Amino acid sequence: MNLSLCTISFRHHLHSIKEIAEWAQMNHFQGIELWGIHAKHLKENPQYNSDWLASYNLYTSMISDYLPLHLSHSELLHATMELSELGHRWGTNKLRTFAGQRASASLNNQERKLMVEKLKMICQELERENQFLLLETHPNTLTDTVPSTLQLLEEVDHPALKINFDVLHIWESGAEPIDALVKLKPFIKHFHFKNISSRNKLDVFSPHNVYAAAGSREGMTPLFKGILNYEEFVKSAVSLTEVEASLEWFGGNVKEVLENDAKRIMHVTKEVNRLYVS
């Protein structure tokens, strides 16, 4: 397993990218998932790029952004190419976005068709750049359920379209994560790992709350202390496929939580590897 930390975890902290890279190198991470707005601001500092990150024995696993699918084709194309350029600079071919901002059940056929057209256009552009568009499984988007996600993949029907499998949000949709993993396996390029204390606390991950400096963090738990059994999931996932994952932590005590979760993931992964060797 290749494990990354997300720079979004440090969104309310006064840490430079250099400090984050140094800490990641010392604490069991192989990669960094770069938040789109961080990547855009770092354009002002050309010394920061994939070669610089490699000097810490790290790589950029993914750039996580929010392409404006609600805007015109020309505006969307401009944003796509800007994101593509950032991907090249940081040496990653994985560019993440959300499949719109509305629940799949709320779109009519024409609205869905327009979304499919826009996603196909993005994929055609990114294919020329040898890059992939990863749609995150997320509430209130076209990938808010496994059936809608599979339908969307079939509708767009393009090899550049892949999935960022957010385990918690898959579970939130009512699906069993390991079953969903099996169904979506051919399309999965990345995983997001996070956990929660109980289902009635899931609103803590609503965008208006989770991005707010003063937002509630009640219910967020370290990976192996929440309602989802991540030991079982990690063991199943690494036995089924190659896993590139990011710890997506939004709560406090960032370094302590990330360090402990990374150590535990390493331990679980080693247990699986020992079973295969024996």
From TrEMBL:
- The Xylose isomerase-like TIM barrel domain, residue ranges: 29-253
What single Pfam family name could you report for this chain, choosing any that match? AP_endonuc_2
SUPFAM superfamilies in UniProt: Xylose isomerase-like
Example GO molecular function: isomerase activity
Q: Which InterPro entries match?
A: IolE/XylAMocC-like, Xyl_isomerase-like_sf, Xyl_isomerase-like_TIM-brl
Residue stretches in coiled coil: 109-136
Q: Which UniProt keywords apply?
A: Coiled coil, Isomerase
Query: What is the name of the protein in this document?
Result: 3-dehydroshikimate dehydratase
